[in-house]
Amino acid sequence: AQYPETRLAELINCLREFYFDRDPDAFKCVIEVYYFGEVHMKKGICPICFKSEMDFWKVDLKFLDDCCKSHLSEKREELEEIARRVQLILDDLGVDSAEGGWRRCQKCVWKFLEKPESSCPARVVAVLSFLLILVSSVVMCMGTIPELQVVDAEGNRVEHPTLENVETACIGWFTLEYLLRLFSSPNKLHFALSFMNIVDVLAILPFYVSLTLTHLGARMMELTNVQQAVQALRIMRIARIFKLARHSSGLQTLTYALKRSFKELGLLLMYLAVGIFVFSALGYTMEQSHPETLFKSIPQSFWWAIITMTTVGYGDIYPKTTLGKLNAAISFLCGVIAIALPIHPIINNFVRYYNKQRVLETAAKHELELMELNSISTGDGKPGGSRSDLDTLPPEPAGKEAPSWGSRLKLSHSDTFIPLLTEEKHHRTRLQSCK
């Protein structure tokens, strides 16, 4: 036999007839190794199931084509991501009765704040936090309306006291929420360095810094630098709008898609930079023949090239000669093409990662449901909730190590595999008996 280690090669000298309860579509692909020396996986076949079929027929993975290996690797990464998410959920939700009251309290607070779907009160708190973010953002905008401002004792226009009180209440809520989440976090360092928590700090820090500088006294506030610092810190309040990303998986996916699209964004900036330099130089040269030209220098022409290629067209700088207008038309068309080319891959990245996020979330919930049903079937009568319950497995035979929840994650996919009729040892006995 050309491949003596495969299962079919073991049957070459056997005269009996065997029936294997396996997937026929997968077998049609596996048997190609005997004809072509490689295996191609057809569309519609689960890569994980196909790998199981190759293992059953004892065909080495090295015979699988490279394009199919990449698909298999992608599915393996998805399973690992699902396992990681399930592990995180178990770590967050698991409360061991043997732990102290302080640790149990931390886990309960963390679950309450980080998992809105865990209970109705947690969902109410999440909605309230979302509404307060919107209210604080609206108050920040309304505070700049002259009709809603008042004049203080020094004759300066300041925000209305009512708006300040509303903002103070919102900041108080954000501060309490951040401190509770920091207190209950399993990993304080990772919590403090995560992007969303840095945004939370930037959203509340300007309020306290401005409040401190304001109450240092009149002499301190008379300094121009201090006043400018206070104004700059108040502008930083716009960072609180990014807190909405905590409550929106779509915004989180958009951020991740942009991170993964650095190459496309770099191409976009490169196209625009080249076009801006070329058309601004041409525009400056062509407009020098006009006595009332608005193109005073090439750097000043950069602004005209930017607003033209991005189709903004403010009209503060515009060409007056025929050649200059022709140059403007060409730069407009080139700008549309340069922007459109990299946008499509960026949109595809967003759609792909958004759909993948939805699939992973659904798969993780499905795994938890299977583990919950497994915990109920063991007879403990508890519908999950603690990690010890979720990790409960039927007793294993002596000498065998009980599988962890991670191995059970793989077993939960067993409904997608074609079951074996016999065990490996029993099958070898049958092969020996037919020789």
From TrEMBL:
Molecular function terms, GO-annotated: voltage-gated potassium channel activity
Segments of this protein annotated with the region Disordered: 375-407
Cell compartment(s), UniProt: Cell membrane
Predominant localisation class: membrane
rRNA-binding among keywords: no
Domain Ion transport: 123-357
GO biological process: action potential; non-motile cilium assembly; protein homooligomerization
Keyword Membrane listed: yes
Chain ranges passing through the membrane: 124-145, 189-211, 265-282, 326-347
Keywords: Cell membrane, Ion channel, Ion transport, Membrane, Potassium, Potassium channel, Potassium transport, Transmembrane, Transmembrane helix, Transport, Voltage-gated channel
Residues in Potassium channel tetramerisation-type BTB domain copies: 14-67
Cellular component aspect of the GO annotation: ciliary base; voltage-gated potassium channel complex
Membrane topology listed for this record: Multi-pass membrane protein
UniProt cross-references to InterPro entries, sorted A to Z: Ion_trans_dom (IPR005821), K_chnl_volt-dep_Kv (IPR003968), K_chnl_volt-dep_Kv5/Kv9 (IPR003971), SKP1/BTB/POZ_sf (IPR011333), T1-type_BTB (IPR003131), VG_K_chnl (IPR028325), Volt_channel_dom_sf (IPR027359)
PANTHER family (alphabetical): POTASSIUM VOLTAGE-GATED CHANNEL SUBFAMILY F MEMBER 1, VOLTAGE-GATED POTASSIUM CHANNEL
Protein name (database record): Potassium voltage-gated channel modifier subfamily F member 1
